[in-house]
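BUG: 3D viewer hangs when loading the predicted structure for this chain

Environment: internal workstation, default settings.
Expected: structure renders.
Actual: progress bar stalls at 90%.

Input used:
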Amino acid sequence: MNVILLGPPGAGKGTQAKRTAAAFGLKHLSSGDILRAERKAGTELGRKAQSYMDRGALVPDELVVAMMADHIARPDAAKGVLLDGFPRTRAQAEALDRELARMGNRIDLVIDLAVPDDDVAGRLTGRRSCPKCGAVYHIRFHPPKTDGMCDGGCGALVVREDDKEAVVRQRLKTYHEQTEPLIAYYREKGLLRQVDGSRSVDQVGAAVDALCRGAQ
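Structure tokens produced before the viewer hung:
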């Protein structure tokens, strides 16, 4: 089973993807996590992606599709994948369909986590990250034990460049302009299901799990 999670940045795709992938034995592929790892490793892809991600713009399709196709084709994804943060444009979705068809595979379910823009902005601008261990906190929902400091003893937390207010608003603008056409694309294919992403993590997770069970 291959599942895609759609939704704006901060909708909770990463959280739901990890728990759902574990529950259904799927390989969780997060384009954001992979891109950040590539940046940290200083790969060619990472260097090219850096300038786009830091200003809240989408990384060009050819870079993302090449990266994701490589991971989808790996042996550890043979039982199915849960795609988180990819595809983001109709062109990427069409390229993904072609790649899966070449492999004799297809997408079985697309879940859209719907969250209002103001809720998204509040979630993202409140995030604080540890640059050393990668731990993520939130000033309201998951604060560190000591204000501004990592619980693991790594030191000071930071606001990621793409979590700053101006960048968040640009990311949302980009999402609405370029990514929302995916909703129409997958609705036309009969694959789209929508979940209210503004509810609690457990409520959203239960709804996502029910849809996945129905798609098996």
